[in-house]
Amino acid sequence: MKKITEIMKKYQIIAVIVAAIFVVGAISQTNLALQTNNPTNISKDVQGVIVSSDGMPSTEQSAVLMKVETEKITATRGSTIKVPVTFTYDAVSEERTPVTILFPGKTARAILVPPSVSEKYTQEQRIALLNSKTLPPDVIDLYSLTNFVPSAVTLLPSQTRTVDMYIRIPDSWPDEMLNQAVIFNVNHDVVPLITERADGPVSVEVVIVP
Amino acid sequence: MISTSKLSLVLAGSLIAVVLLPSLTDVADAVQPYVAGYPVSSVYYKVDKIWMFTHYKWTDQFQLNCLIQDELSAAGGTGIDRTGWIYQAKSFMYGSASPVCASSSLQGKVMADPEVWKGGTLKWWVTPTNVGSHTSIDYIKQRADWQNAKSQVQFAFEVRYTSGSTTIYGFTYNKTDYNDPSSYFMVGSTTYNGYNVRFFQFGVESYGQDAYPAGWKIRQYDAGFYDSVSGTNKYLSNMSAKAVQGQYAYITWQTGASVPDKVGGQQFKYTDKTSSTGIVDWFYNAFNTNGVPNDATLW
User: Fold this and answer.
1) CA of A43, closest CA in chain B: separation in Å?
2) Predicted ipTM of the assembly
3) Chain B hits for A21, Cβ within 8 Å
4) Cβ contacts of residue B276 below 8 Å, gap of 6+?
5) Mind telling me how many Å the CA of A121 is from chain B's nearest CA?
6) 10-residue block means of pLDDT along chain B (299 residues)?
7) Do B115 and A47 touch (CB under 8 A)?
8) Which residues are CB-contacts of A86 (< 8 A; sequence separation ≥ 6)?
9) pTM (2 d.p.)
């Protein structure tokens, strides 16, 4: 009888351990679900997929995460707006190489063509503006209106730093573009280009008023 | 007691493995639902420029789970052969339905998101660029163009807003930074080891394995390319076009590989389409379990 009681006690201990493990498992799953619902965590993973027979994509998911506090701003002609942008290097390992974020980035350009001007150009001519060093006066180079302080930051794994993006609205801002939202994206490059995906995007909508 | 501790450790290890394995498997499989169209034509080896027009204005952002991607893809070539590289003039739209994949201010917005791949490896990308609300955009011309003595590919997104203004977003990929031997895009179809390979595809892709977002409707139209051999623009409306599902969406191959590379890699269930010459509307249809039939005629 004593033997049976001892065996039962042993099984009770095992049952408690198993139950505890299930609880831990459930909590882990809850955490996974929460991570899956976290916009930052999902958006850094999202991308198109090419399936290759001779190799699999990297399973690592390091990313540079970006955030702006204010995403909609009203500004007047001739004013300059300051937009703090925070960058966090979410590295899969503390041993990862530091990354440097450069402002402005070299690979991107954005050109705004107001409605009355749009019709002056053919579609090919409008796209060709991307390669023009000198733009016509009635066309706006959006990225030339932004300035970043500092112009570069280096991030260690898990480190967060803030960069101020200044957006200058010229006095000559066209009447026909007043009271419309114009999107300013944070134009940057990550060096060295980490093999994982950079998170994003970060943009600010600015409505320009007289 | 020692044996009980050991047993609990074994049990703990097994259970933790059970909890974690599914997410690791998801990552390793790395396939996503995809369906596309392609021109039925012989191979064009020297294509300098590719484009298509598109818009998302009929998509219901509040039904759309996470996001839906809108892609123009072409294989890279030397002028006489494929190289195994792939270029995607791609955009996507964030939705508001669960799982939510963006902050509330980005839901309903369209992002420009060009990519360059070699086989299953993403080689070049940019941080997705917000180009505006899907309802404020009349159309987007998504274009890729070899430039500067074929040392660069410029991805251009000409976004025409309903207000009448236009913003042109440009992104430049330098092939020398990646030892990319390509100098052209390729268009047309061939076979490799018995697989049908389509070098030029226009289609839609989900955001994750077995993920079938709802509420989306995307128009793709007036696609074309510049053939530098004849020195002329070629329009897909002058060719016939067919559909291909993701599990068959082979686009190029690596030298010596037995199986070619494909876009997406998984059947895009619950998809439907309406089409006329040069125009296709892809959309979600909850009742169309198997999606657009593979090999369906578009026009």
Assistant:
1) 5
2) 0.86
3) 8, 11-12, 15
4) B299
5) 11
6) 32 28 34 96 98 98 96 98 97 94 90 92 88 98 97 97 96 95 98 98 95 98 98 98 97 95 96 98 98 98
7) yes
8) A66, A67, A68, A160, A161, A162, A163
9) 0.83
